[in-house]
Amino acid sequence: MSLHVIVGAGPVGTATARHLAERGEQVRLVTRRGTGPVDPAIERIAADAADTDRLTALTHGAVALYNCANPAYHRWATDWPPLAGALLTTAERTGAVLATVGCLYGYGPVDAPMTEDTPLAATGTKGQVRNRMWTEALAAHRAGRARITEVRGSDYLGAEGNSLLPLVLPKVLAGQRVFLPVNWDAPHSWTYVGDVVRTLVAAATDERAWGRAWHVPSNPAVSARELAGRVAQLADAPTPRLVRMPYPLLWLGGLNDPFARELRETAHQFARPFVLDSTRATETLGITPTPLDEALADTVRVLAATIRTPTPAGGAH
């Protein structure tokens, strides 16, 4: 039994804690309020992970430190730097492998399927924040100060998330019209949370993965229209009514809505083909994606539970 420390109890952090506990590992889950799944095998700790000394003490003796945190979408530029700095310093002090849950924002607009070698060319704030985090961690790894890795997935299935998808599927299940700035017919990659967890733990515990970023194995891209239609079939809901919102309306919405304002930066992901190539992780780490219909069935279950029990504003991350 080895100690694994997880920062953040959002969908990925919670699922990672449960996955490791089921494997018989010692799990310590760190959040500001000590939240997380109630499980005798999971130790929940209330602490500010940006406090480097406190996080170092909590990580002492751990084999891995998982960055599953998720600051508020509109606060990435202010909240990520101190938190990322504390996580990296803690990894340097303790020797724990720092395994970070990343995203695809760092690539910026693309014209071809994204691989781990695609240039990190983002010009937006969120993409640049994530790129600085990765660049600093990679420099520490190459200097021999830390062992690090990162896994990157596309929009999540099986969980709520910071994307347009949570705005789409509840309306599909309710038989309501969906009016969003989405090219409903453009191919798009979708990543299942369970596959994020398996890839994250594999990358943290396999030294072949250290010092590199990995794309989470994901199914072949399908359009948002096809995805919504398959969800409707699984839930016995009406055929989705999907209407594309003109981009200027999204821009105007961002004048008063922080979330809509942040979506301006990533609107390209839903305006054109957005395809993830995850061949490397499958070939090296032996992970294959969960079948799409299985991932969608889990997504429907999660959404149904969320609709019945609304999440309080500012939920745990």
From TrEMBL:
InterPro entries listed in its UniProt record: Epimerase_deHydtase (IPR001509), NAD(P)-bd_dom_sf (IPR036291)
Domain of life: Bacteria
Domain NAD-dependent epimerase/dehydratase as annotated: residue spans: 6-207
Transmembrane segments: none
Pfam families the UniProt entry points to: Epimerase
Coiled-coil blocks: none
Name recorded for this polypeptide: NAD-dependent epimerase/dehydratase family protein
